[in-house]
Design brief:
About 60% of the residues lie in helices and about 0% in strands. The chain is mostly helical. It has one domain: Orthogonal Bundle (ADP-ribosylglycohydrolase fold), CATH 1.10.4080.
Length: about 325
């Protein structure tokens, strides 16, 4: 059982990284554009994309997941929310592996920039945030370490919301992170995907954020295979960065019974915010199927693959 749990924890972390790196190649491109160049979908991690990533290099999705992970490993910080904020500030200010010291990240979302700017001034992670109305997916993409590190559900939900609110304090974002992490925790604990989604939905209901509850229910009715085949997502923002779109896609993905690779390739085929949708869906798929289900030709390229594997042993 410990080995199975460890594999699922590693799968969640590596799933985020793999989805991020796979999707980075075609970020911002349309479904039609991707279909024309990759009729069978993007199946190899090759880097490139609008920011010229090396193969397997972390974009902001994985970098900020690592920032949250470092708040819990190798030992949990006394205040993981503050520790996560400090690691995010280090990332945006240029103290980060793979970058010249002092250099800025290649890609930073608007709410992340504003929230971390507010934190750098106030030094209070619970009074930062970009404010209501900023409902991008930039906190959902990085939230999974809390699901893996915090055993108590009430504390896990609280920390999920507070770490989201460092940059994304809109209730749709904070509740999405809490619901997503309850799905992850249930999967890691051995729940089947349908039951895990029910657990996440119950968390959203308990928080009283109806749009998040609706997004989970909507995702339950979506088919990733059909969306990838037709380009019709039926999503409010067409998967272009809205947090509830990304949550719905991830729910549809984890309920898809096909293997990890096939589902994640189809998520990326949807186009638009491909790296972040891939990262968010990849986290759920990895928690469902375990690290062993992620193709070795992908994991061997991941910038923080070895670090994430080591962290999974600590968390397990």
């Amino acid at each position: 059982m410990l080995t199975d749990r460890r594999d699922r924890i590693a799968g969640a972390l590596l799933g985020v990284h793999a989805g991020d790196s796979l999707g980075a190649t075609v970020e911002f491109r349309s479904w039609a554009s991707i279909r024309a160049e990759y009729p069978d979908g993007v199946r190899e991690i090759t880097g490139g994309g609008p920011f010229g990533w090396p193969p397997g290099h972390a974009t902001d999705d994985t970098d900020l997941t690592r920032a949250v992970l470092l708040a819990y490993t190798p030992e949990p910080a006394p205040d993981p929310v503050r520790a996560a904020a400090d690691w995010m500030l280090a990332w945006i200010s240029g103290d980060w592996p793979g970058r010249a010291p002092g250099s800025a990240p290649r890609d930073v979302g608007r709410a992340t920039t504003v929230g971390l700017g507010n934190y750098s001034l106030s030094r209070d992670p619970r009074k930062a945030g970009a404010g209501p109305g900023q409902a991008g997916n930039g906190s959902l993409m990085r939230c999974v370490p809390t699901a893996l590190a915090v055993a108590d559900p009430a504390e896990r939900i609280l920390q999920s919301r507070e770490i989201s609110a460092i940059t994304h304090d809109d209730p749709r974002c904070t509740a999405s992170c809490a619901a997503y992490n309850e799905i992850v925790a249930a999967l890691v604990g051995g729940a089947d995907p349908a039951r895990a989604v029910e657990v996440g939905e119950a968390a959203a209901v308990g928080l009283g954020v109806q749009p998040v509850t609706d997004a989970i229910a909507f995702g339950r009715g979506l088919s990733v295979r059909a969306m990838a085949a037709t380009g019709a997502t039926h999503l409010p923002d067409e998967g272009a960065g809205y947090v509830l779109d990304s949550l719905s896609i991830a729910v549809a993905a984890v309920l898809d019974e096909r293997p990890f690779e096939d589902v994640l390739v189809d998520v990326v085929r949807l186009g638009r915010d491909t790296d972040t949708n891939g990262a968010i869906a990849g986290g759920l798929l990895g928690a469902r199927d375990g690290a062993a289900a992620i193709p070795a030709r992908w994991t061997s390229l991941l910038q923080f693959g070895a670090e994430f594997m080591a962290a999974s042993h600590t968390l397990a």
